[in-house]
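Below: protein 1.
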Amino acid sequence: MLTTARMKLSDIRNIVIAQALEESDSGGRLISDGEKRLADAAAGAPLATDSGVAKQNAFLAKRASSVIGTVEPRLEGDRSWLRGSPFRSKFSLFSIIIVFVAGIVGYLTNELGSNPNINILQFPLIGILVWNLFVYLGEILVFFRKDGETSGISGVVCRALFPPPVIMKKEENESSLEFRARALFQSRWRQINLPPLSARVKATLHITALVLAASAVTGMYVKGIAKEYKANWESTFFESGDQLEPFLKVVLGPASKITGDRLPTGAELDELNIKNNPTGENAARWIHWYAVTVMLFVLIPRLLLAVLWHFRSLAKDRQIAFRDISPAYFDRVLALATGDSLGIVIVPYAHQAGDNVVQGIRTYMEDIFRRPVSIQWKDVITFGDEEEAEVEIPKNLQPMLLFNFASTPEKETHLALYRKLAGDLPENSRPYQVILDCEAFDRKAESFNDAEERRATRLQAWNNLFAAENCDIHMISDHAIAVKDEQSV
């Protein structure tokens, strides 16, 4: 896993934006290959092949700024997504509101009730203690789980605050290209930010619980100052003070040791039973004990958990593995910057490939050759110019001819062009290979019951045409492109 090292979050964001723009713009309508090479140069290309992750990331950040600067003036829609970080600002507002509300609610909660006589077993704080103990057990399990940051309440809050964007299917128009780039970025940026943000949400929820309990205790003291409360007890389960004494030692024992006060004995508790003493005693010491208990088992643990999750979020921020998302893109960019990519020259004949096919060819070639590729597209050779066609191919590049699979393969045109261009290659050059664009054929054949049979027949005709030539034939199908595209998103 490649991490961010000491990268700024803004640099990572720019890199992910540039990645979304370039991967959505397979036809080069927003930024051309030449402009990408200029961005490479501005960022410090050529890179040394043994450059470390830190230098590579610095290069990617500078290059991303150049790409965004080139593309931004050409976008017709809303450009605000190219700047700022809505996740962080939205989260900050959420944190302020929820902590403020918790403080108000906690203070206004009448924990002591309106009755001057309070039952020491009916303190709502006992319920708070039990609930918090269950929370702590859950946190121990969640903290060490791989997906712990995005599970539980924090995961629900994150999904509510940062819902996944709706990704529209590709259409052949400029506005959908921009929409797709924006949706692709938002989806990936959400994926990158979700673990640290979820950890930060957990920290905020712990602070919220702390503030809620602390303000409730504060309100309890304020009410106790303004009004004298009396304490006694009655219970369905405890019939005597001797039965109640062990329970109070468990719940209030630590607090009594801190305050230095002794808990009542069984006989003294019998005297506080409502049957024997309807009026009760002054509730001050009970309020102190419960307040200290809340501090021990709610305030301090919640503060520690908040700090723990805060540092976990900082660690996650430093470990954002943005290059693990669609890594082929980064392999390609860095390979081009170091000169380690395979250069391919594609010569189309009587056919212009669509954006889907352009991207599909790149993906297919990288799978076939198992390395990043740099593709140069030559002008289309028109029908009838087979004998006069001239294409200059550098010796170290891989030449390819692009034909429309839907066309009937002909010796006088397709094969003649292949032999003419192959004969013009310098000595010891890579031989021409053939790419068959099946997009038009596949879409037309969808309405035929014998589509597979027609496809097999047409493929056999192409194979027969080039059987005597030293070339490989590659088929780029629309179905394969669609599958690859869905996987990349």
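Below: protein 2.
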Amino acid sequence: MKKLFLDLSQGISGDMFISALADAGVDFKGLEQGFKRAGVDVRLDIFSENRNGITGKLARVSSKNDQPLRTLEHVLSLIQRMDFSSQVKQKSAEAFQRLAQVEAQVHGVHKEQIHFHEIGAVDTLVDIVGAFWGLERLEVGEVTSTPMPWFSGEIEISHGKVPLPAPATAILMQGKKISPSDYDWEIITPTGALIVDQLVSVFENGFHGRLVRGGLGFGNIEKGFNGLRVFLWQDEHDGNYFQDMVWLLESNIDHLTGEELGTFFQKIMEAGALDVIFLHGIMKKNRPGGQIQVLCHDEDFVRVREEFFKHTLTLGMRVSKISRNILPRKECHVCLEGEQVKAKEARFSGKAYCRPEIEDLDRLAADKGLSLAEMRLKKNQP
């Protein structure tokens, strides 16, 4: 799994993040075309930029037509019309809902009532949707970063002058790891803070793994260096395996019914769990029960933990971080009964092994009037 590390020491904005991804190798022409197919006239230009003797990328968003002042409802409808992957659309929609929630908190209204420029501006649309779209192109599974730098000063908004960080930015920085700085201008914008809020799972000063490549993205404010560095990296690979770290959440359960356990298994997987296991055993007072074990990535930990407590009402759980050895894998297709079926290809000792996805296999079996077992035993043709 590829990961992305953000150096936030110089701040972050939406355009800085898009620029950095472009410098790391993302071709954003497909994003621009996707917006146009959804009826949004937009142009995204990527330029080379040199500041302080260092070359990076600079992204600029423009439109021939005036853009309407969009509400949250309008934005969500627009996102659903886009022909991007379901994951990109879902994460983009969640990000805009989070932004609307924060702006509503700032202005003291319900999020469905607000009309504001930040959420309607076409450049913010490009920045937020483009962030998830770009990470998908790089096949990034996790984002980490340095602590967010604190800054001061003032900025002029539609309601007048406000202190920095801007109100929405300050809310989005809550719960994040912060470090002091001497900056007295807006080095972190609300869109930049939103990207960190939605993407970053761990705040640390570096990473341990194999560096693949880096990228440098400049912002459109020419004050200071105003550059965001990103680093694409992978866990160490010892020949046959990749190694990564995941969270293990465990709890002994003796108070749930079978129906409640079944619901828990469904909800915890929907929350982002990688795996869930129930090990039967005898609990205190000779009660039949078992131990629940759940695995998840850093970016899903908080959500998985909350769902674990919510659907079990356990009084406590054991939490630890463990190392995994993982075979290199990728998506592929195999030909069964004259049809292409989605599969996963794993490699071990120089050989590839393809395993059809069970949902596609089950669908094809039903179409052919076969049982799932009969279909599974058909000879795979690569």
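The mean pLDDT is 89.
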